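Why do we care about 3D structure at all? Because function follows from shape, and shape follows, mostly, from sequence. That is the central idea of this module. The next example makes it concrete: a single protein chain, its amino acid sequence, and then its structure expressed as tokens.
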Amino acid sequence: MLTTREVPGNNFLAPRNRALQLASALIFLFLVLIFLAFQMSAWLARPARDDSSLTLQGHHGWVLAVAYSPDGSHVASAGWDGTVTVWDTGSGRRELTLRGHTDRVIALAFSPIGRLLVSGSRDATARIWQLPDGREVHTIKAHKDRVTALAFSHNGSLLATGSRDDTIKLWDVKTWSELRTLSGHTALITSISFSPDDHLLASSSWDGTIRLWDLQHESAPRILDESAYEVSSVAFSPDGHWLASAWRDEGIIAIWNPASGRKMATLDSHSAGISCVAFDPSGHFLASAGTDRAIRIWDVSNGNLLSTLLGHSGSVFSVAFGPDGKWLVSGSKDEAVKVWHFPPGTNEQSLPARFGHPSVR
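And the structure:
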């Protein structure tokens, strides 16, 4: 009779079992090394300092767009998680979470009196939300691809929507009827901005051009720039004397005279591409941000770099000044919304009533 140890095949299976155990151990070690590498990269990505006054957490994914309400009472943010969050600036708390989009939200804009908030999404819609209750009052479904840029006219009568379908559409805010389609770009519209008198609309695109559209006449747009680089952002100054633009693949900002079409200045300090530019309400200062994680503040009158704000651990996609010019909000790849005091240097202990709760982190 054969004993258990004498069963044929046992000696053959033993090496195989040892090989399986060794393979399992190697796989486990490999997974541990991946985890440690991820933790190390996250640790290295943390900024050396954080100049922000407040960090608002709540999104699950990149924050692609931020906007300040005209009265400064609220900040809106949106991104990869497909939601729009409205924050109360008096408490720093989340007041509304707006759901309805079926894909990431790329753009935001408040109406001039703050009663409406519009969001543009990869789901090819722009949704209009009524404030303060957050009720969705209309959905624009006219674009053939994602809605990537939004702007209200300063008199509040028009909404402009830009898309990856290469078009810009103008809408009557009272009826939500389409008034006009602006065609000419050959790639995604990255940004749109109305002049203060609402006579001109500036647009930027991945096709490397900046176009100025005359809204009083249906003439061909003026092209300010044609380059091999994708233009990521445009913004009119509050007085309309200047137009700022930035490039997605270059850390360069251009300041234009929109009346003459001449480039008046070039600002160069970012170490990588720029995602967004925004003027402060006075028009004296310009904020820029991008993939180098820094927000830079410029004196437009002389082109001097005034300050570099650090705190985000990922690319910064969007910045917006508050209506009093004392606050700046930003959204980033690090899933955070950060609030900065302007001019820089005010610490949390001296915060005024708005954003007066530095514990909200």
